Amino acid sequence: MAERLLCHPRFRPALAAYCRGMSRAAPIRWPYYKLFDQLGRYLVCFMMIHNYYVWRNRGGPPPTLSALQGVAGVSARQTAGFVAALKAGHLVAVERDPADRRATLLRPMPRVMFEIGRSMRLFVAATDTIEEPRPGRAALLEDPDMLGDMIARSGAYVLANGTLLHAFPGVLHFTLRDSGYPLLTAVMASHYDDRLGDTPSAEPLGRRALAERFQVSLAHVASLLTEAEARGWFALGPGGRVAWVADAFLAEFEQWAAWQMAHFEGLWEPGDVAASVTREAPVAAC
Fold first, then answer.
1. Would you say 207 and 24 are in contact if contact means Cβ atoms under 8 Å apart?
2. 3-state secondary structure of 100
3. What is the CATH number of the domain that holds 248?
4. In degrees rounded to 5, what are phi and psi of residue 239?
5. Residue-wise DSSP of 113-151
6. Does the reported pTM lie above 0.70?
7. What is the C-alpha R_g of the chain?
8. What is the pLDDT of residue 200?
9. CA distance 122 to 232
10. Residue 247: inside a domain, yes or no?
11. 96 and 110 in contact (C-beta within 8 Å)?
């Protein structure tokens, strides 16, 4: 499916819309936004959602802190610290297990799920744009419980197979840095704006504007952009426009996006949508 999506004439316009959505300023402001915007912290939240919905919908073990520490991918101490910050921000609720009043359960609040699920929701919307299913599926993920269960399905895949990210070292590099991935999508949104010509204008890429948008220091933005140019991935020119994007890096980013779309498409279950779903005929291979 990923190769079919890559070859589709609507793929790049749909990916441009994804990039614009991912690079918008987060609705959750500092300091809570930073809890979601670096891979290690993101995965703690992601697996917390996974644990809760596997327990709630699929008979999994109770979503306790100790259970989360076993799957979060960072140290137990780091996990506990992230969860404490989420509690302080009222982004996770602490509840008693009705089956064992001694157990304390972690229930993610909708604000967390919508921010952690932002990329999933936007990739599903991009797939809707490309494939034109009837009915479209992105709207289903506006329901927090539907979104939570989809995150749980994706989390189960990650636990069994590892993340898709590690096949894409350039993309992975940005996800490991504070606000790195949103900055990358901002650059790509501007690139597609210039390349496609008929997409809505991307937001400016001046270093100060990027720092304000992503709530990081000017020095941090400068470091990310300098690293990208030094590695031969992309560079910004005068006026905050994209000077160039290396063909190999662009291909990696687009392959990553197509894999993500295919991954999320494979998570749907028969009961999620109407039994009759029509699609346009697939386009020929590139």
1. no
2. strand
3. 1.10.10
4. 75, 10
5. HHHHTHHHHHHHHHHHHHH--BS-SGGGGGSHHHHHHHH
6. yes
7. 19
8. 64
9. 28
10. yes
11. no
Contact in structure between 242 and 249 (CB atoms under 8 Å):
no
- Calpha distance 255→5 (Å, rounded): 10
Residue 185 φ/ψ, nearest 5 degrees = -70, -30
* Tokens 């927090």 belong to residue: 144
The model's pLDDT over 227-237, given as tens digits with 9 standing for 90+, comes to: 999 999 999 99
Q: Does a structural domain hold residue 235?
A: yes
Distances (CA, A) of 197 to 25, 29, 189, 207: 23, 32, 12, 23
Residue 117 lies in a domain: no
Longest dimension (CA), the chain: 62
- The total of structural domains in the chain comes to 1
For 155-183, b/e burial (b = at least 16 CB within 10 A) is: beebeeeebbbeebebbbbbbebbbbbbb
- Residue 199 pLDDT level (bands cut at 50, 70, 90): low
Comparison of pLDDT for 102 and 45, the residue scoring more = 45
Domain that holds residue 249: 168-259
One-letter amino acid for residue 147 of the chain = L
Q: Which ranges of the chain does DSSP label H, i.e. alpha helix?
A: 2-7, 11-22, 39-58, 65-69, 76-88, 110-116, 118-131, 144-161, 169-175, 180-196, 207-214, 218-230, 247-265
What digits encode the pLDDT tens for the residues 96-125? 988 887 889 999 999 999 999 999 999 999
